[in-house]
Amino acid sequence: MKIVILIKKKAGMSREDFIRHYETSHAVIGKRMLGHLWTRYVRNYPQSLMEYQPEANSIDDSYDAVTEIWLKDEAALAEMGRIINEPENNALILADEEKFQDRLKTRLLIVDEIDNGTTL
What we know:
Layout: E1 2-7, H1 15-34, E2 38-44, E3 65-71, H2 74-84, H3 87-100, E4 107-111
Antiparallel strand pairs: 1-3, 1-4, 2-3
């Protein structure tokens, strides 16, 4: 199982401050709380927007981080949801997200990953 999270930084926040906060606070919280459920956890920070259809894209549509989380199985996904929704954990996560994310623009996708031409 894989989750992809698209994150937009808070308005007015520098790219450097966004990355610093994500790496030194949010990622640390996530690893401590949920790391035992993951097989891999990667944060990607786009350098620029590749405009293959310039009229369809604008910088406002881009994301400042693309996070990938691989989970052991569906049971791990369910456990992740349970842990995140515990009131104390949820309050901690939300308070930290408010410091660096535009939460209304965050997108969380559960995806089917196809690698090296394999099919489902």
